[in-house]
Amino acid sequence: MSGHGGPTEGPTGQRRPPSDADLSTLSREELVRLGLAADGVTIVRQEDPFPVPGTRAEKRTERKVARWFIIAALAGLGFLVAFLFWPWEYAPPGSPGSQHLIYQLYTPIIGLLLGVSVYAIGAGTIVYAKSLLPHETAVQERHTGSSAEVDRVTTTAILTDTGARSNIGRRSLIKRAAGAGAGVLGVGAGVLALGGLVRNPWQGGANAALWVTPWRSDNGEPVYLRYEEHDITLARPEDLAAGSIATVFPYKRSWSEEEAHKALRASDSPVMLIRLRPGQAAQVIQREGQVNFHYGDFYAYSKICTHLGCPASLYEAQTARLLCPCHQSQFDMLAYAKPIFGPATRALPQLPIDVDDEGYFYANGDFIEPVGPAFWERRS
Ligand code: FES
């Protein structure tokens, strides 16, 4: 072994790489030199921007880097808090106070905070690399072939050496700030993945939001079918011509304006009221348990597609087929709205309807199955 980490002389004078035993005796600096020489790398220039540790200029630069990581930590913390505690439940336009605005700000706020946190981590890393890492220019010749043991060992030494030369060990402020920034961001990523488990969608048991819709009436008061217009207009059989369709929403006479508005905007409210053409009623196939759900040739089905929840209301009156425009699922309205084409696999839930003494449609109860796409806990 030559003692400076380079290749050794063989018996015939040719240079040979050091043995594994030789390698184990070399210092890190020697391994670095050996690795650089073996890779044909020449360091043209290398200078530490702060050769004297602890100068005011160095501290100032450190604080500049740390500022970015602290911003990352604060933004990450803000993201966590907003993600978990910002009022995220849908508040329709016209809700009291600023509820609608607060609801609308939810996504921009968490996006902005997460973005700032990621940006600040990146900015801090770049400023650190540019201002505090040794400035080095190296030239390497290109070569082919697989790496030998000597290359692997020396590469490891070079990487370790780079870490040591970066002087990160003596920059505790940056280490702590970077640790806080990356740590909070990491926790944020975890919360992003697991946060849904914190909010329990089954709060309320049998009355949980996924089981019931605004069509349910707890006190026996009728829930009428109304049109979407601002002035509340209740649906009546004479409103619809044969072969036509109307979108209706739940309405109770005792509801305040705010309650009525909330029901109008609830995602599981929209219902299609369909009047079949003459002659089609005789072809209808009823679903078991739903034979009394219709009123004459009027049928009411949830408008929310059972595939991914789009509003499905492209009705072809001649064939009594309903098309969902999102992924082209088709539902046969003469056979309890069962899917006959496309990715949807479940029939649209049917709303039981009747007409009261005054001639207005009302719901004879809530849907008997959940509205919309599938979820793990649903039984149908
Ligand atoms: Fe209706 Fe996909 S959401 S077909």
- Order of neighbouring strands in the sheet with most strands: 8-7-6-5-14-13
Secondary structure category: alpha+beta
In the CATH hierarchy, the third-tier topology of the domain at 207-363 is known as Rieske Iron-sulfur Protein
| SSE order | EEHHEHHEHHEEHEEEEEEEE
CATH architecture of the domain at 207-363: 3-layer Sandwich
Oligomer type: single chain
Q: How would you explain this protein's 3D organization?
A:
There is one protein chain. The protein is an alpha+beta fold and 380 residues long. The protein has a domain at 207-363: Rieske [2Fe-2S] iron-sulphur domain (Rieske Iron-sulfur Protein). It has 7 helices and 14 strands. The longest helix has 33 residues, at 99-131. It is elongated. The termini are far apart. The model is unreliable at 1-6 (pLDDT under 50). Residues 305, 307-310, 312, 324, 326-327, 329, 342-344 line the site of FE2/S2 (inorganic) cluster.
